[in-house]
Write a structure and sequence with these properties.
Layout (H helix, E strand, L loop, with lengths): L1 H8 L4 E5 L5 H11 L6 H8 L4 E8 L2 E11 L2 E9 L8 H15 L4 E7 L3 H9 L3 E11 L5 E10 L2
Parallel strand pairs: 4-5
Antiparallel strand pairs: 1-2, 2-3, 3-4, 5-7, 6-7
Helix pairs in contact: 2-3
The protein binds coenzyme A.
Length: 161
């Protein structure tokens, strides 16, 4: 059974838990692999110790494999970032991470959740649409691309019942 789980999940069963400040270096490293502009360990640590930030970490077996962070303000929140390590992508782990995070935000009294996503980020847009997010605005020329091009940011919203 353990062998089957290892084969299915590439090293062990997935486990999602509230992120701890000691996850800061692992989150910063994965953020740097996932986005053009990285976060320093200190930036991540200050987010993880901010009382208005909700953060979850994903582990597969004992390996750090993903994270999601949101900042709450009154009854609204914004997803600041979500990422799953490349070797674990495409297995529904971001969906599980986001679902757990949404449930926790709902329990905290958040009524509406917002985020910005690059219009070309197909995987993220599929993830968010499947989770019930809808486009409410578009910010042209928002993300700089190599070669002087730009991409628009889509602003997505999901109401939490
Ligand atoms: C976006 C991201 C978190 C998705 O993680 P994941 O664990 O692979 O996602 P899941 O397996 O849960 O799949 C979620 C959806 O994305 C789709 N998807 C996953 N990888 C994809 C790919 N390479 N191309 C197209 N769609 C993809 C899945 O098919 C699924 O959609 P569906 O339910 O309609 O089939 C991951 O690609 C990532 O970390 N990207 C880099 C960081 C990033 O861009 N974060 C979002 C910033 S707004």
């Amino acid at each position: 059974m353990i062998g089957l789980l290892r084969r299915l999940f590439g090293g062990g069963a997935p486990h999602i838990a509230a992120a701890h400040p000691r996850d800061a270096a692992a989150i910063a490293a994965l953020h740097a692999q996932s986005f053009h502009r990285g976060w320093s360990d200190d930036e991540v640590e200050s987010l993880l110790t901010d009382g208005n930030v909700l953060a979850h970490s994903l582990r597969v077996g004992s390996a750090f494999a993903g994270f999601v962070l949101s900042r709450c303000a009154a009854d609204e929140a914004e997803i600041l970032s979500i990422a799953v390590a490349r070797r674990h992508q495409g297995r529904g782990l971001a969906r599980q991470l986001l679902n757990m995070h949404l449930g926790r935000l709902a329990a905290l009294g958040v009524k509406a959740l917002f985020l910005e996503v690059d219009e070309n980020n197909t995987a993220a847009i599929r993830l968010y649409r499947r989770a019930g997010f809808r486009e409410v605005a578009k910010r042209p020329n928002y993300y700089p691309l190599p070669g002087g091009q730009t991409a628009a940011a889509l602003v997505l919203r999901r109401d939490i019942a």
